[in-house]
C-alpha cells in the first residue's frame, strides 16, 4: 500500500525481515545476559545492557569478525529504523512504569530541596562544561565553531538521564523512597531544560540564529502538557476504563488504553520539541493517579517492559558506540577530562543544592550520585550533536564514553554514600 502523494518504497524482503529477527534475537539475548552478569557483581542491569550493545557494535564484534558484523548490522537506514522504532517504544514504556511509581505528594513535600538541587545540578556542570569546551583541542570541535561546541558540551554535562536513573534506582530498591522520588523530579527538570537548550543549539548550528519563538513554544507547551496531563489525564483514563468495563473488555482492553494514552502524550511532547520520554513519564504519573486501573494491568506492563523492551533499548544504544577512536591519545585525554569534570561537577552541584535544601550529607551525596548517570539519552544527545555538525568523531566518542562511565559509577557511588535499599 502506498499513501497518496508519497514516493513508493519497495516492500521489506525476506532477507530484511530475517535480519530484523536475527538482530532482535542477538540483542535481546545479549542484553539479558549482560544485565544478569553485571547484577552478579553489584552493578545495575542497565550497565550490562549498554555494554552488551557495545560488544556487538563496531568496537568489538566489528573488529573481531568484520564480515559477520557487517551482515548482522548493515549500514542501511530502513533496516536500522526497524530496531530503533522498537527500541524507542521500549524506553517510552519504561518511563510510563517509572512515572506510575512517582509519588507527587512526596515530591511536593520536598519542593524546596527539589528546586535547590535542580538549580545546583544544572548550573555547576553547565558552567564547567562550557569552560571545558573552550579548552579542548580544536580537533574536538565540529564544523559549527568553538562557541556553539562549548555550549553544547555544557548542555551534555548538565543533563541527567531520567530513564537510566530510574532503572538504577529500581534495581537498587530505592525508587519508592523519598530520595528516589527526589531524584526523579530533579532528573525530569534537568531533561526538560536540557532538551530545550539542545533545541536552541540545533537552531543555531543549522540556521546561524536563535529562534525565540521556538523556545517559547517549547516552554509554554511543556507547561501546558504537564498541567493538562496531570489534572485531566487521570479522569480521562477513568472514564475510558469505565466504558471498557461496561463492555467487558477485560485486562487486555485496559492495557491498550494505558499504552495508547502514553503514546499520545509522548507524541505531543515530541511535537513541541522535547523527547517522547518526557511525555511518557508524565503519562505514567497520570496512570499512577488513576483510581480504576487494576494493579494487574500495571504489573503486566512492568514485567514486559523490564524483560523485553528496556533491555532492547539500552542494547541498541550501546550498539551505536564506536570506541576505535580511542586509539588516538589526544582523544583519550579528552575523554578523561570530560568524564572527570562531568562527574565532579554533577556531584558538587547536586550536593550543594541538596544541602541548601536541607538534606543530610549522605543523602545529598546519594542524590548527586544518582543524577550523575547520563546513560542512553546522552548517547542520543551526542548523536544529535554529531548530525548537526557541533561534534565530530572525537568529541562524539568522548561524550558517549562519559555517558557509559557515569552510568557504571552510579551504583558504587550510591553505596559509598550509604544509600539503603527498601
Structure description:
It contains 18 helices and no strands. It is mainly α and 422 residues long. Helix 5 packs across helix 9, helix 7 packs antiparallel against helix 8 and helix 15 packs across helix 18. The protein is globular and about 65 Å long. It starts with 13 loop residues before the first helix and ends in a 6-residue tail after the last helix. The model has no long low-confidence stretch (mean pLDDT 83).
Question: Can you describe this structure in just a few lines?
Answer:
By secondary structure, the protein is mostly helical. It is built from 18 helices and no strands.
Strands, helices and their partners?
Elements: H1 14-40, H2 45-56, H3 61-64, H4 66-72, H5 77-100, H6 104-109, H7 111-135, H8 146-158, H9 162-171, H10 178-207, H11 212-246, H12 250-271, H13 276-289, H14 295-319, H15 329-356, H16 361-371, H17 375-387, H18 393-416
Helix pairs in contact: 1-2, 1-14, 2-14, 5-9, 5-13, 5-14, 7-8, 7-10, 7-15, 8-10, 9-10, 10-11, 10-16, 11-12, 11-13, 12-13, 12-14, 15-16, 15-18, 16-18, 17-18
Amino acid at each position: 500500500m502506498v499513501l497518496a502523494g508519497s514516493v513508493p518504497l519497495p516492500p521489506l524482503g525476506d532477507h530484511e525481515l530475517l535480519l530484523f529477527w536475527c538482530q532482535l534475537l542477538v540483542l535481546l539475548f545479549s542484553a539479558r545476559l549482560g544485565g544478569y552478569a553485571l547484577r552478579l557483581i553489584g552493578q545495575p542491569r542497565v550497565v550490562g545492557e549498554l555494554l552488551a550493545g557495545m560488544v556487538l557494535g563496531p568496537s568489538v564484534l566489528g573488529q573481531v569478525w568484520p564480515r559477520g558484523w557487517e551482515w548482522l548490522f548493515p549500514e542501511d537506514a530502513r533496516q536500522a529504523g526497524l530496531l530503533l522504532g522498537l527500541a524507542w517504544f521500549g524506553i517510552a514504556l519504561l518511563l510510563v512504569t517509572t512515572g506510575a511509581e512517582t509519588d507527587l505528594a512526596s515530591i511536593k513535600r520536598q519542593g524546596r530541596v527539589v528546586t535547590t538541587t535542580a538549580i545546583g545540578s544544572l548550573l555547576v556542570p553547565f558552567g564547567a562544561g562550557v569552560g571545558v569546551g573552550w579548552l579542548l583541542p580544536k580537533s574536538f570541535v565540529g564544523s559549527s565553531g568553538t562557541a556553539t561546541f562549548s555550549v553544547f558540551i555544557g548542555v551534555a554535562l548538565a543533563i541527567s538521564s531520567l530513564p537510566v536513573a530510574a532503572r538504577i534506582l529500581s534495581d537498587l530498591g530505592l525508587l519508592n523512597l523519598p530520595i528516589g522520588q527526589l531524584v526523579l523530579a530533579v532528573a525530569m527538570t534537568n531533561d526538560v531544560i536540557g532538551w530545550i537548550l539542545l533545541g536552541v543549539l540545533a537552531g543555531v548550528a543549522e540556521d546561524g540564529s536563535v529562534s525565540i519563538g521556538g523556545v517559547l513554544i517549547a516552554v509554554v507547551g511543556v507547561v501546558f502538557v504537564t498541567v493538562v496531563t496531570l489534572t485531566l489525564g487521570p479522569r480521562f483514563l477513568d472514564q475510558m476504563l469505565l466504558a471498557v468495563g461496561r463492555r467487558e473488555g477485560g485486562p487486555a482492553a485496559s492495557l491498550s488504553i494505558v499504552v495508547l494514552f502514553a503514546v499520545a502524550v509522548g507524541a505531543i511532547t515530541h511535537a513541541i520539541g522535547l523527547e517522547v520520554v518526557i511525555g511518557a513519564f508524565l503519562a505514567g504519573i497520570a496512570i499512577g493517579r488513576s483510581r480504576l486501573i487494576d494493579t494487574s494491568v500495571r504489573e503486566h506492563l512492568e514485567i514486559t517492559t523490564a524483560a523485553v523492551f528496556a533491555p532492547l533499548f539500552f542494547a541498541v544504544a550501546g550498539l551505536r558506540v564506536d570506541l576505535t577512536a580511542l586509539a588516538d591519545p589526544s582523544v583519550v585525554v579528552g575523554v578523561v577530562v570530560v568524564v572527570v569534570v562531568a562527574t565532579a561537577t554533577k556531584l558538587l552541584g547536586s550536593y550543594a543544592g541538596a544541602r541548601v535544601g536541607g538534606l543530610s550529607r549522605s543523602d545529598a551525596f546519594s542524590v548527586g550520585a544518582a543524577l550523575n548517570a547520563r546513560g542512553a539519552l546522552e548517547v542520543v544527545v551526542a548523536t544529535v550533536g554529531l548530525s548537526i555538525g557541533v561534534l565530530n568523531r572525537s568529541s562524539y566518542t568522548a561524550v558517549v564514553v562519559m555517558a557509559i562511565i557515569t552510568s557504571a559509577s552510579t551504583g558504587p557511588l550510591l553505596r559509598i554514600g550509604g544509600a539503603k535499599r527498601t
